[in-house]
Task: structure prediction
Amino acid sequence: MAATDKNYRNQRILDIVFALSCVLMFLSILWMLYDDYSRPFKNVQRKFRDVETGVFENAMLDRFPDDSQMEQIKEAEQAVVDAQASVKKEKEDLKDHLNQFLDDHPQESKEYAANPARWIKARQTAKTNLQTKYQDIKSKIDSKSSFYNEEMEKAGAEKDERLRDLHVKRAEKLANEINVLTNDLNRTRTEIDVIVSDLATVQGGLNKAEEQLSKAEDSLKKLTSEFDRLAKATAQKTWKTGDWIRALPILDGFASPVKPNQITLKALPIDYGGFADVTRFDRCTTCHLAIDRGNFDKASLRRLADLDSAAVGDLQSKLDKARKFLIERHKRLEARGEDLGFDPNDLPKKITTLKLSKGEVTQYCAHPRLDVFVDPNSKHPMEKFGCTVCHAGQGSATDFTLAVHTPADMKQKEEWQKEHAWAPTHDWEFPMHSSRFVEASCLKCHHQVTDLITHGSKEEAPKLLKGYNLVKENGCFGCHEIAGIKSGREVGPDLRLEPNPPLDLLTPEERTKALSDPTTPPGTLRKVGPSLYRISEKTNEKWARSWLNNPRGFRADTKMPHFYNLDAGNKDALPKDQQDLPEAEVHSIISYLFDASKDYLDGKDDYRRLNLDKQKKLEEELKRQEPPLLDVERKKLEKDLADVKDRIKYAPVPTPIAKEMVDEFGKPVDLPAPPKAEEQAKHLTHGRQLFSEKGCLACHSHQGTLKAAPDAPAVNGQQTFAPNLSRIAAKIAPEGKDKRRWLVQWILNPNVHSPRTRMPITHMNAEDASAIADWLLSQSPEGQAVRFSEVENWNTADVPDPSLQTLANLAKIHLLKAPGFTQVDVDEVLGTADVSQAKVVSADRAKYMPADADERKLEGPPDAKKLKWYIGKKSIARLGCYACHNVPGFETAKPIGTALNDWGAKDPNRLAFEEADVWVKEHNNIVNDRSDAKAWKAKDGKQPYEEYFYQALEHHQRDGFLHQKLVAPRSYDYHRLRTWDDRLRMPQFRFSHLPKREDDDSDEDYQARIDKEEDEAREAVMTFVLGLVAEPVPLAYVNEPKGDRLHEVKGRQVIDKYNCAGCHQLSPAVIDYKITKDSNDLLEKSLKRAKGNLGGDYHFLDHNAWTGQPYLEKDRARVFGVNPRDPTDDEKRNLELEDVELKKFRLARALRINSDNGQSSADLPAGEDVFLLEKNILSQSATHGGTFANLLVDYQRKRNGARLTDDDTARSTLPPPLEREGERVQPLWLYGFLKNPTPIRPEKWMALRMPKFNMSDDEAMTLVNFFASVDRLENPGVGLTAPYLTIEQRDDKYWNAQDRKYAFEMGKAKLIEWGKTSLESLKEQLKTADDAQKRADLEKKIKLLEDALAKVEKAESVKNNEFPDLRGQIAEEHPYQVDGYRMLVKPKTKLCLECHQIGKVEVKGDAKGPPLDLTPDRLRPEWTRYWFANPNRLFTYKTIMPANFANGANNYRDEFDAPSLEQLTALRDVLMNLPKVADLPANRKTYEAAVGGK
Amino acid sequence: MYGESLAKSTQDGLGVYYLMVALLNLGFTAYYFRSAKKPVDAIVWTAVAGLFLIHAFANFLHLGWTLSEGIRDWVDWAVKAESFFSAAALGFIALLAFRRYLTLPAVAWAVTNVALLCAGWAMTNANFREVVTKPDNVPIVLLVFSVGFFTWLALRRGVINDDRMAKGEPPLEKLEDDKVLVWPDLVYTELICMIICTFLLIVWAIVLKAPLEPPATTAKAPNPSKAPWYFLGLQEMLVYYDPWLAGVVFPLMIIGGLVCIPYMDYNQKGNGYFTFVQRKFALSTFMFGFVVLWVVLIVLGTFLRGPNWNFFGPFEYWDTHKVLELTNVNLSQMFWRALGDDAATIHWFKRELPGIIVIVAYLALLPPLLAKTVMRPFFIRMGFLRFFTLVTFLQFMAALPIKMLLRWTLNLKYIVFISEYFFNI
Result:
């Protein structure tokens, strides 16, 4: 076709299409650019610029000087101007000065006369040159001197005389040179000095003026620096033209002011499952732009967002003023040739107003805990830790959804869906922790968990700690091992059961062996339930069955979980052929336990029997002659035999209680006879008193103590560490045996029944124990007021006895799994359908089974007892009862549950979610949010269920699975066909303790509260479990407490284990307090108020009870207080703060109070009251411990009102607070005391005695270290030494020095008294002296002293160190020790003897304090001194010990002539070495006088 | 998920979809009314458009119409790998056989309408929607419609041309000039296409962002693990054949076969125009290979293969825990069991002898047999070498449907199973 031909297509149409397509493409490209420009993070960053401006603007305007400050500024500026003028003048005057100088120094050249600046410069140049020259000469001298030295050394060492001369000559030459140089040097020095003085003469005035100027400038700067800084920041943060241009679309691709920020963490890579670790990039700061900037707190941002028009108007006028002020100042400065550092015209002209959503406030705000996280000075700086290592989520994403934010509840979810089009994503295996579970991550590095408690009681991760404690308390680790070590590396907390037998029972060699491998240390935790070896002595089968069937039905807050009648496992939900099985199982388990227990008590239990058999066999084998034993064989047999013998050794045959009862020392005692009828009431009251007072309520609670009775005030104990004993009378019910006998034995010595129990021995005698037991047993279980409705019908009919057929059916299921049993075998043993057709397990068959096969028990025709035994054993193995209880027959059984040490990282695809979500949907009322109390109700009998968890379950997320597993473990069986033994085994726990029921609680409210606490507890447990990720975090990141901190952390675990805090208060509340002007005023008022108590006090600078610490931050103080109370109206009125929310604390440590202008500070010492503004309390942790002591104060006052007249006195009869315990007592003593507590304070005064815990040596040592370490950390000034300390008072040198010092300082009266004593003693010596020379000396001495004494008597007063001879002689008589002792023992002083016993010296009144004979071994000298100085400072309540040696009081001068501080020191010294000091002849006399000559 | 109600945004989307289909039908109506002047047809298509409009309004009003559970269950029950593939194969044969009627514009349009309506209804199911709208899978949806369209186009033109040639007229393509100008007819058009493609790709990239999946780990393979979409046919073969066959031999044979086509094609007719009659064998064979064995398997692999490579109905939830019984047996097992012997105890050669014989017979005996019988004309025209090459390729192609058939009917796992040497067929 020719080129002129028509086109194939219409050209015009093609053109149109082309044009259209071009337009489309252009539009699409624009769209693309827009799409990129509007990426979410870019919008966020652009908006942040305005937020920044706004925040700085507000802050700047807040600090805009007010009128009075403006005056000051003006003055300061004037001062600057003046100073500048004087500088200027001085500069002008320079010429005159110079001319004057030149006139004075005619030899000087006049060439610079007209130009002082050049003269100065010339002089300075000359000076610099001379200085260089000086250095030059000096280095030459140094060098030559070293040569000289060298030559002289050589000469000295040289033997050849000729050569020596040569060296000497050389040295001399050098010396000459050095001489010349030295002259040079001195000349130069002089020249320099001349120049310096010349310069000073001419320039002096100018220098001074300049100094003045810089001072004036400084003070001006001080006035405005904060405002200037913020103004500069505001100006810089305001968008300027350049920024706008760079942020434009397309251009923003080049030098954009908006761009992703990232933290690169090579040291903390992400493990993507098997591939090489990948560097972690956290781009979170791309949107969280102010995360590390403290001034972007939520309040500031909200304020910015909530500006109303009035506020805007105010601010606008302020801004205008500020602009004007700055611009003027800028001009002034410019005129002076100075600079403001920024252009004030850059400041915004209009007040920044912004709309910020709730989410944006969160997005733009700083991290709420900058003191711990993100900040470079915190423990987790952002640059080192990044974000995702704690928060999880996809750090590399710059998109809200792709970063995998996880909402904490439905409300947040909806907000996010609206604001960020958030949708769940399953593509990142570790979504960000929702705020519910964010604490879980702490576990990655804080493997000890208790290291998250700082400063005594401040819990940094309360939810996690709660979870950790609940896991320990409920014994989760019994079934689910939580191993802290994975392939030799520490990866998490280590919670595992202790080995059997426990380490404490082993011999030292065995223990060393058990501990030899550091990568697999033995577990440390005891089983949480009581031992069941002797259950048959304690109760009966019927009770045990109903308990097992429904434990919370009997005791609502028991830790025992429910195994039966649960959700998808209840009778109706089970398939027909399984409906009878639960009952059969309950019967069988209980039957097994009682059989096994009886066997055990008879010494015939299987474990023992099998081991004895084995021992016999092995012994026979060892004796074998034919064929002769090989060496290898023998060794093996011997080892096996040793093992078997060990096992027998650690399982001794018990003595049944029925046969013998023993007391705490293991001595047999008789059971006291029951009281006679007429004494019954008194006896029971006595029992109740003992129960209330002797510490039972520190761990247990009992309904019977709630109502007051004659002689028995009410105590409302809420302790949950140990079981609630209200119904114990029903529980202890051994068949045909004496309830009383068992309970008395248990109280006397609980270790008899359960050797590993944490119940301590309470030093009760049999009579007292029987009183408690009788009272407990007299409390009818039915009559008790119930706390919770579900408890009422506990005692319904017994669990029905299963038929033989049901038992056979159940046994078959287990038998089928027994090794060597086929279906045919099983049918033969238990009948095909009908058990009556069963054939026996023949003896023949039994013979070929292993010795320990359970099937052996089935030998012979089946009967109920045999079957129950068999099923019971199999069921216990299946359900893992031995995880919490010691069960006979399960001595070596392994945990049944999934190991949890990396559960938090488990792939959700490997979890069997089954139909649990359907279960929830069908059986629960799904409620949007927990916070909506009205909706949070059961509906149609369906319990409320939080939608958050429902959705997590539906979306197959870990937390959803875990939550449902804890709520309704068996629901995973729902809609599943499973044989009985394939059904789930996890029981259902109740984690929370029942809250206290208030009188006005309706059933519904109470139920709601119970549910809420349970939800919280469950979430705490989940937080812990989700934190178990076993991630091998680089070692540099793992928190490994060391030294004292480690002792503190470990000690806390022991304290929790034995509930020490149940009785003793261990540490004060820690309050972080914001210092503002009004809060500081209030502190000053507190200080003023306390002034009265401060007279007579000392101020020990090194001790934190007297000296407060500097604030953590400029505006954040840390207050350590106890006994938080609301102040009374009177107090409020006195403070003139009637309408303000206040809290009153008793300080446990001194608090530094800075004066308002920050110039001076004062300390409010411990023991004083402080008032705090509630709104300024940033965080507050609870006081740790002391519950029982607090509980019983009131009781004690009611019981012993006559002697305990106030709360503080009552408290002195109760367990003492252990704050400063490490500082107080000697470690060795404490160790002995913990292992074997002896009475300290008089038992008559005290309500109770420290019980004896079943504590290992290591644990006791850990506690000792804990106390010492805590005080070393908290009170470093005291310089505590631990664990060993020397007591200098045991050293003669110390005493000699003190005696001498005392002798040289005593006043006239004492000097005369002691002079006489000395003379007498010299005369005494004279009498016995036989050597002539010695006699002469003595006589001379006596003469001398008599003279001196006469002089003393005449003198008006004596000065220290006067009469040295006399005083020297007195020092020989140990006056310090004698007077000190006199102070202690002499009845006249009314000092210690008022309350303390010393040896046989009777106490005058009631003995209240510990006998002082304990002191030398018990107390630390330093503490004792502080204690004497002012006991109230060291105790958390007002102690009954008086401050006898107030500062400046100077009492007891007759006894000990020195100021109070020295008196108390002497007293302390005497006590620290009491036996030896008391043994001085003079002191023996004093003592004898005190005991009345006996 | 189960029985979720339709989100409002989904309903709005469906409304737009139905509205667009209605507009297409109105366009069709306009064509019939104005160009074709067939008022009756126009009324029918107006009614169809009305049907779609009703759907559109129902969705815009958020009435929440969803596919009834009965239908969903029935479809899930009816659609199995075997039924899906067999239906596709039969459909293909029917398409060729009844091409005259099926390619009529009205019929094809009706079929399209039915497909679109069904698609719309199916989209109300969350499971279906999730699979179909996954950004990875959207191209496959386009593939279904574009393959359908081009197949229709080719056949339609073929039918017209065949008719014309039967009447002695030249085919339509011959009516036009066989030369056009490079500029503007080629280059200009290409430029426009380029621009439009760029436009489409940009819009696609903005609207349907590349899906981000979990990071790769060695510890956890994605489930299902799918090949790139164009290899899903190959992956489907892995269900029936050993990897060395399905992954190595067959792909090589496919490439080889495609390379060999020009050398084996002796038919001179049908160049430069659409026809069916003149190239019956070539067209049916190639289209069977491409449409049925490739595209259909891609569709199956994309939409109907879920976790664990299990087959899922279009509305079925992709449950990871679904377990299908696997009771497949080897030929040797069947054979020796029938003879009362246990295959496992026999030496591999003797054991697998029946299978080996079958394979050898298939590859060695079938070609001469075919040459003698049905394919005799081919043999005569192609000569020995070309014929045997062709038949061998055909046999390999047929191997897949044959094995499928054997699997579905006899539960046959392997014909030859020599696990000792990792050699299975």
Observations:
- DSSP finds 16 helices and two strands in chain B.
- The mean pLDDT of chain B is 90.
- Chain B touches chain A at residues 1, 177, 179-181, 184-185, 188-189, 191-192, 195-196, 198-199, 202-203, 205-206, 212-220, 223, 320 (CB under 8 Å).
